[in-house]
Amino acid sequence: MNLGKVVGTVVSTRKESVLDGIRFLLVRLVDTDGKETPSFVVAADAMGAGPGEMVLTAAGSSARQTTLTQNKPVDAVILAIVDTWDIDGKTKYTK
Amino acid sequence: MNLGKVVGTVVSTRKESVLDGIRFLLVRLVDTDGKETPSFVVAADAMGAGPGEMVLTAAGSSARQTTLTQNKPVDAVILAIVDTWDIDGKTKYTK
Amino acid sequence: MNLGKVVGTVVSTRKESVLDGIRFLLVRLVDTDGKETPSFVVAADAMGAGPGEMVLTAAGSSARQTTLTQNKPVDAVILAIVDTWDIDGKTKYTK
Amino acid sequence: MNLGKVVGTVVSTRKESVLDGIRFLLVRLVDTDGKETPSFVVAADAMGAGPGEMVLTAAGSSARQTTLTQNKPVDAVILAIVDTWDIDGKTKYTK
Amino acid sequence: MNLGKVVGTVVSTRKESVLDGIRFLLVRLVDTDGKETPSFVVAADAMGAGPGEMVLTAAGSSARQTTLTQNKPVDAVILAIVDTWDIDGKTKYTK
C-alpha cells in the first residue's frame, strides 16, 4: 500500500455507469515524514475520507477487493484512514 | 486512476481480432494543475472521449472491467470524462 | 498500452516448455514523436511483427489475453502493428 | 519480490473491516548492499516481522496469495524474513 | 519480460510455508547491451539458473503461471535462460 494525503476531489458526470455514486479523491503520495511528494493518484473512496486525512491506498486488482469497487474499472482505492505511524521508534505522524 | 488529456489517436489495421472496433487514444498524463507531462499511455476508449478532454484512465486488469474491454488484451482504458477537480479547496480544472 | 519499436530478438532454448514456439522480441519504447527511449521490454509476439515496426504492447495480466499467451508466464505482448498516430491533429508517425 | 527493511508500523482504526487484525508495516526498500533507499511500501505482515529485519515483499495480486491476505484489498505483503544474501559470491547481508 | 543477470541468492528460513523448496535469486536488470543497471529483482527460479546467466523474468500475476509458482505469493519468476539477443541486426549478447 501507499501512504497518501487526501487533497482534492475529481468530478465526472460522463463515466462508466457502474461507477455512479463512487467518490474519486485526489490523493497525493507522501514520504515517510508525511511530506507531500509530486506523485498522486485518483482513488475510489471506500472509507469516507475527508480533505487533509492521511490514508492508505491499494493499487491494481487489489483495489477491486472492496464491496464498493468489486468488478469495477477501478485501479486505486482508499482502504484505511491512518491514525499514526512511526519510524525507528519515533512517531512521524499523528492524526 | 490517472488524470490525463486526450491528445491523439493511434491507428492500427493489423491487430488482435478481438480489438476490432476499439478506438485507441493517446492520453498524456497531467499534473495536479492540469499541465501536460512527458508521460503518456495508449488507452482503449470506453467513453467516446474527444481531443483535448481530460479523462481518468485505469491500468492493468482493472482496464478489462468494462463491457468494451472484457477479456481483451488491453491494459489501459478511459473510464470517465473529467468535468472538474479541486485541490485544497481551489478549482484547478473546469471543462 | 505502450508504443514501441521492434529492434531485436531474444533467443532462448532453456525455457518454460509452454513457451516453445513463441517469439520474444525486444521492443524499445518510443516517445510521442516516435523517438526511441532507453526503456525497453521483451514481449511475446502475437502479431508476426518485423524489425523496425512500431507496435502496441500490453503488460501484466492483460498480456495473457491472447490465444498465443493464455495461461502462460508472459507479462508483455505485442497486440497490434501501428500504422499511424497523430498528436494535436498532426501526424507524428506513418508506417 | 523486493528486498526491504522493516522500519515502522502504520496504525489505523478506520479501515475496511476485513483488514481487522492485520499489521501494516512500513518497509523501506534497500539496495543490493542492504543500504536503505528513499522508496518504501506499506505491507501486510504475514510473518510476524520485527523492526530492523530484512524481508521479502510481494506486490500486486501476488500479495493476496497468503492465508492472511486472501481476497483482501492488500497490494503488498511480507512473505519471508531474510537470513542472508550474497552477490557475486560475497555475502552482502547476514541477519 | 525483463532481461536480467543472475548475481546472487537470497536465503530465508522463516517464510510462507508454500515457498519451501523454491530458490530465490537476485537478478540485476541489464540494458540492451547487457550492461548491469542499479535495478534488481528477487525472482523465484523456475529454470535452475546459475550465477552469471542472463535470464528473462516475468512480473506480477504472470509470475504465478509456472508449475513451481502457481497460487503462491511470488511476483517475479525466471522463465527462461537467454542464449543470445540482437539489436538492429547486431548480436549484443551470446552465452
Q: What does it look like?
A:
Five copies of one chain form a homopentamer. Chain A is mostly beta strands and 95 residues long. Chain A has a single domain, classed as EutN/Ccml (OB fold (Dihydrolipoamide Acetyltransferase, E2P), Beta Barrel), CATH 2.40.50.220. Chain A is built from no helices and eight strands. In chain A, the strands form two sheets. In chain A, strands 1-3-4-6-5 form a five-stranded mixed β-barrel. Chain A has a two-stranded antiparallel ribbon with strand order 7-8. In chain A, strand 3 and strand 4 form a beta hairpin. The interface between A and B is medium-sized, with 30 and 30 residues. Strand 1 of chain C pairs antiparallel with strand 7 of chain E, so a sheet runs across the interface.
Largest interface, C-beta closer than 8 angstroms, per-chain residues: A-B, 30 and 30 residues
On the 0 to 100 scale, the average pLDDT of chain A is 98
Tally the helices of chain A: 0
Topology order of chain A in helix (H) and strand (E) letters: EEEEEEEE
Largest sheet of chain A: 5 strands, mixed, barrel
How far apart are the termini of chain A? 19 Å
Helix/strand structural class of chain A = mainly beta
Regarding quaternary structure, what we see is: homopentamer
The CATH architecture name of chain A reads Beta Barrel
Major β-sheet strand ordering of chain A: 1-3-4-6-5
Name of the CATH superfamily of chain A: EutN/Ccml
CATH topology of chain A: OB fold (Dihydrolipoamide Acetyltransferase, E2P)
Estimate the strand proportion of chain A.
Answer: over 45%
CATH top-level class of chain A? Mainly Beta
* Radius of gyration of chain A, taken over Cα atoms and rounded to an integer in Å: 14 Å
Number of domains of chain A: 1
Shape summary of chain A: elongated
- Report the strand count of chain A: 8
